[in-house]
Amino acid sequence: TFHINEKNMPFYINDLNKFKPEVINGFVSAIYEVAKYIKSSKVNLEFTPKAIFTTSETLLDFHRILIEQVFGTHIYNQYASAEGAPFITECLKGELHYNLDTGVIEQKINSDSILVTSFTTHGTPLIRYDIGDQVKFKCGECSCGSKHPLVEEIKGRMVDYLESFDGNKVSLSHLADVIKGMPSCIKKVQFVQTKKNLIIIKIVVDTNYIKEYDKYLIDSMTYRFGMLTDFIIEKVSEIPREKSGKYLLIKNEYLKNKQI
Q: What is the pLDDT of residues 77-105, one digit of tens each?
């Protein structure tokens, strides 16, 4: 994931065409970057995988649409944690199930945050451990036949949102919509909140980006955060991945510092 860029992308595509994988499994952002390159460069794929499994990052609608279109197959969303539970998988009917094999997850009262009891951590027992992740459960049974409990939505980490000056939370999916209506001149974007009233918008752009788009970005953010939040647009050559190899669409430095 650390070496995915336009210079190296042809090597990835050549190897994929040579290997012809039956399935693809990986970070959402990495697979999405490959799919974007294939579409923009009009590269021909010489294989069609049976399925794509994504994990470790939140799968948003725009990720799913492009990846499924480019690879001509279905994405099955997955979610797991190093604590051994929860392990959530998407079934053939498109429903999310949390698997009881590795542990139990419970919802905190009046919250979407989850508590984990793991069956696999033998060194240090984890019993109702708050891992900082958020999942929304769903009632009923699935027509796929699985009796594993249903999950309506995987919300991700508690820091997967930014905060307006008056305390309202703006989620990851809402921020992804900021550039949804723009021409495909923004290659990458990252929203970084450094203060209660300041958000930095880092963007990697191509030659089709024009100055007028700055106003569109600011207006879209003001609509979501209000007039009391300031925005700074930073055009950068690259947005680095985290140590884990993940690419973060948002970084809530303000919340992290407040928690410390």
A: 988 877 777 789 999 999 999 998 888 88
What is the pLDDT at residue 86?
73
CB 199 within 8 A of CB 192: yes
Q: pTM of the full predicted structure?
A: 0.72
Task: Answer whether 97's CB lies under 8 Å from 141's CB.
Answer: no
Contact criterion met (CB below 8 Å) for 66 and 39:
yes
Tens digit of pLDDT for each residue in 154-168?
A: 876 655 678 888 887
